Amino acid sequence: MSMDRLIEKIIVKGNPTVVGLDPNLKNIPPYLLEKHVKEHGETLKAAAEAIYEFNVGLIDALYGIVPAVKPQSAYYEMYGVEGINALKRTMDYAKSKGMYVILDVKRGDIGSTASAYADAYLGSVKVGETVIEPFAADCITVNGYLGSDGVLPFVERCKENGKSIFVLVKTSNPSSNELQDLVAGTRTIYQVMAEKTNLWGEDLVGKNGYSDVGFVVGATHPTQLLELRRAHPRQFFLVPGYGAQGATARDLAGAFDRRGLGAIVNSSRGIIFAWQKTDCKTGENFAEAAYDAAVAMRDDLKRYC
Amino acid sequence: MSMDRLIEKIIVKGNPTVVGLDPNLKNIPPYLLEKHVKEHGETLKAAAEAIYEFNVGLIDALYGIVPAVKPQSAYYEMYGVEGINALKRTMDYAKSKGMYVILDVKRGDIGSTASAYADAYLGSVKVGETVIEPFAADCITVNGYLGSDGVLPFVERCKENGKSIFVLVKTSNPSSNELQDLVAGTRTIYQVMAEKTNLWGEDLVGKNGYSDVGFVVGATHPTQLLELRRAHPRQFFLVPGYGAQGATARDLAGAFDRRGLGAIVNSSRGIIFAWQKTDCKTGENFAEAAYDAAVAMRDDLKRYC
Prior knowledge:
305 residues, alpha/beta, homodimer, globular
């Protein structure tokens, strides 16, 4: 099972961290863009090559201590077709180094379209007789606002192809309360989403006791993290919000089970742009700075799991 | 204002139809793929070239009578980077023929990420001193499950760049009731989403009386269409579900105002794959078949608006 593969990588590394690869050009070391602009001019190609080189440096520095990466698709889509090419190459490179790739795309649509997205990210397409996996993520994030028929195509690909998904339950952003915390009958909307997600994934529980269909729950909501952990012992959590969004390791304590499993915690800016808080103003130390930040985060989290 | 541009195109063509460009390879005429496989082998490149040629044929046949196209991003993402390249080229070609391009991406994320998506589809990025519009859609679809901070970056780009969005309110799929119809207090979730969307777009009402921030409401829900039309006279509707999903023109009557404006109705499979219902088994008549189907749909809709 796919979530088992993630859990085993977390155990081997002793580290429940996923590093978010959100390489906004404004924050990557300027020399990287300058180098590729020399070759390609001020183009999306230059931006994409700078991003890819940045990501390779990060992955080389991190794969020994971090089990997973989570590229945020928006930061690649914003550089157009070239940016998405850099995303694909980044995913391939991370997998070649043994990292588990959670692609953060938050897709969700009507059944036939969800099926097309599922083929894109967790499955394959046929061109003539040739079967091709267009992106081949290990796992993606899914938005369930459309209900079961918008999510089940992703669940089917999990089953068929050994993949995982995390469904948005309670997101980390300040206005997540507007819809997600509304009370319908006796339950909040995020509780309804959690219960539905539990059902969608009930046939996909692996040997570690967790389903291939997990939850996204923000670290910025420690009470809900604990409540959802207790109510849904078979759901693994992808937890954004640590670091730049304000949550601390203590806020996360409720996300873990007695074995110290149950959640993988994302940090993006706090790790990949750690060079900005060092004395090296060129950013040539970005990979070492990311490594140091990842070690500090691991040690911080390990106090609570 | 961007919604005014759409409305003016609808008035000029006398046709409130948007054609969904969802070119699943399984349904496009086989000779198109065969031609490009000869040149590129059984690759994503061949698939993408076949899709692009199909789309160009459709656009050439339709731009005289149809005001807008709605490419569904999933059907391009499923052919990888090459597929997304075909999407971008299709959008550019449709715009060159004067069509309004609604890109159906259903994006939604936390604020900083929503901002990156908004730059990708409705805005621009800077590479050095060069400003580039990566996709340059006229309009996109947005998922509001994350609340205001996940939607407002898109609204800002509407204001800054003369763009529009349609927020998912009540989707056309069978299980849309599971979350969207839950009752919180006195209102359903889709009514809450509608009220929020109304507020997000209240500063962007154009000279035709409609905001640049509209709703997605499925044609499969005629009662809700009428209810939402009455409650939200300033919101233009993007209405999927006509044809292949089962809704008829009569179901749509409630979506329109007294001027016959207020909604644009999508049909995808019913138009672009109309060749499959003709006697021509090679599909070489796909463009004429699409034209005939679009004329029939226009005439069908005009009985009610």
